[in-house]
Amino acid sequence: MTASPTAHSRLAFKVLTVNVHKGFTSFNRRFMLHELRDAVRQVSADVVFLQEVLGTHQRHARRLANFPDQPHYEFLADSIWSQYAYGRNAVYDNGHHGNALLSKFPIVHYENHDISIAGPERRGMLHCVLQPPERDTPVHAICVHLGLQEGHRQQQLHRMAALVRSLPEGEPVIVAGDFNDWRGRAHGLLLREARLREVFVHTLGRAVRTFPAPMPLLALDRIYVRGVAVHTPVVLPKRPWSRLSDHAPLAAEIAL
């Protein structure tokens, strides 16, 4: 992270997004949150977008000896990311989970938007306003997890675009998370309605396959940007990520 940029210098930082699957591997075979924390640290990201992160789960806490006492987003943030925000989406008898954002920049405001459409599937959009050091302009970081049904996703994408359009024109926007958009229909809609471009599509010509992590077939996870000077994909190694969650992560370098 750039330590002390001037008003006219370029600020460069790294972002990471990963669906942590509540700290478990594919099919919930093993609890891997401790190993996941080590892997997240190794990326050295300044801003981390997390989906399916547990706030609490009483049954897991009773049966797993290494289950953290604190919420998982706090456990992952540890001493590396001093700022974090959590948006609770799904609540059940044993606990709750949702989206979270970890940041080395101050989070001056955050709001969780409930974008659930119908039925038991609960989805959210966590909007955080970050204030990089010695910069007049804030950065908007929006962590999302969209629905499994195409009709629900389309409505959620329209809501996302409306939120981005409502933000001041000169303020950079980063939207990242699990879009569940295996048909690739989000790109055109978000470009038309909110001028959001996906980092990997813009640079490589295609979205990156991230699911299932051991052998990715579907491009479900995305990083979209608006109002940034440079956005460059970061290639992450297959291991250890292929055994830490059911989703592979995505990372990118952003410059303002």
Automatic annotation (TrEMBL):
- GO MF annotation, one: exonuclease activity
Domain Endonuclease/exonuclease/phosphatase, by residue range, is: 17-247
Source superkingdom: Bacteria
An example GO biological process term is: GPI anchor biosynthetic process
Keyword field contains Nuclease: yes
Q: Which Pfam families match?
A: Exo_endo_phos
The alphabetized UniProt keywords are: Endonuclease, Exonuclease, Hydrolase, Nuclease
GO cellular-component terms in the record? membrane
**Database matches in InterPro entries:** Endo/exonu/phosph_ase_sf (IPR036691), Endo/exonuclease/phosphatase (IPR005135), GPI-anchor_lipid_remodeler (IPR051916)
Q: What is this protein called?
A: Metal-dependent hydrolase, endonuclease/exonuclease/phosphatase family
